[in-house]
Fold this protein.
Amino acid sequence: MALLTAGYSAGQILGPLLAAPLLNHGYNQALLLGSVMVALAGAAAAAVCVRFPHHLAPAAPTA
């Protein structure tokens, strides 16, 4: 949980710093950066699902 929170907070800090220089000509470039980041996150999630498929199965009952 701490790793997830740290990653989220890093994104909250770095996102505006990376997007601010792109706002000189409107929002198009900043929105493109956001969509690229979402696509990268989706690709990373898919890679994890492919690499560790056994973590997607339901847990066996421990009774």
About this structure: Residues 28-51 form the longest helix (24 residues). Helices lie at 2-19, 28-51. The radius of gyration is 17 Å.
